[in-house]
Design brief:
By secondary structure, the protein is α+β, with helices and mostly antiparallel strands. It folds into two domains: about 1-70, Winged helix-like DNA-binding domain superfamily/Winged helix DNA-binding domain (Arc Repressor Mutant, subunit A, Orthogonal Bundle); about 85-175, 2-Layer Sandwich (Beta Polymerase, domain 2). It has helices spanning about 1-5, 10-20, 30-35, 40-50, 75-85, 90-100, 130-145, 155-165; strands at about 25, 55-60, 65-70, 100-110, 120-125, 150-155, 170-175. Strands 6-5-4-7 form a four-stranded mixed sheet. It has a three-stranded antiparallel sheet with strand order 1-3-2. A hairpin with a 2-residue loop joins strand 2 (about 55-60) and strand 3 (about 65-70). Helix 6 packs antiparallel against helix 7 (about 130-145).
């Protein structure tokens, strides 16, 4: 869907990198190795995003670090469009309504880091969740969105144990009760 609207692979990669998770930040050279594209192509797109006010920069040592401008009026719209592009909106709509005592859903893995992936990694946090129902929903969702879904079901205590020694920045909260 998004590829039909935006013809530049670099633009799509930058949108995913910065607008799916506002905690993501990067500098030019890191984007070159991550995207496998020339610094010139990336620099041109970064400058377009900066000129439009969609990105902001800070200097960290000798590096210019880019992040999403979350205060931009289109930030939320772009974020929601990316959720639709990935198919997360459909997954969340289907799963949250009848799963049981679901507290939150987190996106982890490659997509959380802003890297385009055919696999969506989700953590479902709650108590007494209907695992059979979740499996059926995941199978239906995979067909709808043409991506694979890996998931873990955790209790609140298990989530805290998982996060021991990790940063909350490694998770993207996509739904909360």
């Amino acid at each position: 869907m998004l590829e039909a609207l935006i013809t530049s692979k670099t633009r799509i990669n930058l949108l995913l990198k910065f607008f799916l998770n506002s905690n993501n930040k990067a500098w030019l050279r890191s984007l070159e190795s991550e995207f496998g594209e020339s610094t010139n192509a990336i620099r041109l797109e970064l400058n377009r995003f900066l000129k439009a006010g969609l990105l902001v920069t800070v200097n960290e040592g000798n590096k210019k670090v880019y992040t999403a401008n979350t205060k931009h009026p289109l930030y939320i719209d772009i974020h929601n469009l990316l959720l639709k592009h990935i198919g997360l909106d459909k997954i969340i709509d289907k799963v949250t309504s009848k799963l049981g005592k679901l507290n939150s859903v987190y996106l982890v893995g490659e997509l959380e880091k802003g890297k385009n992936s055919k696999v969506i990694d989700l953590w479902f946090v709650g108590e007494n969740l209907d695992k059979n129902y979740l499996l059926k929903l995941v199978e239906k969702s995979e067909e709808m969105i043409n991506r694979k879904i890996r998931y873990i079901i955790l209790t609140d205590k298990e989530l805290k144990d998982f996060l021991t020694g990790k940063s909350k920045d490694e998770l993207l909260l996509v739904w909360k009760e």
